[in-house]
Amino acid sequence: MQNYLAKAQSKSGKYAMFIGRWQPWHDGHRWLIDQALNEDKKVLLCVRDVPTSESNPWTADQILLNLADALKDLIEEGRVHIMKIPDIESINIGRGVGYDVIEHVPPQEIHDISATKIREQMKQEGKL
Questions:
Q1: What is the pLDDT of residues 8-66, one digit of tens each?
Q2: C-beta separation of 62 from 69 below 8 A
Q3: Which residues pair with 86 in a beta bridge?
Q4: Burial of 113 (0-12, 13-18, 19+ CB in 10 A)
């Protein structure tokens, strides 16, 4: 994983930032970052360092490894950078800060993807 992170970190330029728990990474998450990637933007995935729990069964470091595996090609190309950040309670901006705040509204089939349901299925299958 460090190799992938180092390659992404060596690139310069601006990124479209996405903050989440990614517990687990799924097709809805991929759809979300594809909105920026399809516009030839680089993507910064920030993994919130939250305590493990029923709804957060993986540590932030485990999520980093999962993302590095799932997005290996994009990371090697320098199109995606992943990093761990402290847990956050809010995102605050001032006026004229030099970047946009963009909401991506997914189609219903993507909106209906639920990490909670995915975790429940993984438990039933003995994968979690």
A1: 454 458 899 999 999 999 999 999 999 999 999 999 999 999 999 999 999 999 999 99
A2: no
A3: 49
A4: middle
The model's pTM is: 0.81
Peptide bond into 24 cis (omega under 30): yes
What is the side-by-side order of every strand in the sheet holding 42-49?
Answer: 15-20, 42-49, 80-86
CA distances from 22 to 40, 46, 62 (A): 22, 9, 10
Angle (CA) 4 31 123, round 5°: 80
HEC string of 106-126? Answer: CCHHHHCCCHHHHHHHHHHCC
Q: Which tokens go with 29?
A: 């998450």
How far apart CA 61 and CA 74 sit, in angstroms, is 19
Ordered domains of the chain (ranges, CATH): 2-124 (3.40.50.620)
Contact between 52 and 61 under an 8 Å Cβ cutoff? The reply is: no
* Long-range contact set of residues 94-103: C-beta below 8 Å, sequence gap at least 24: 99/14, 102/16
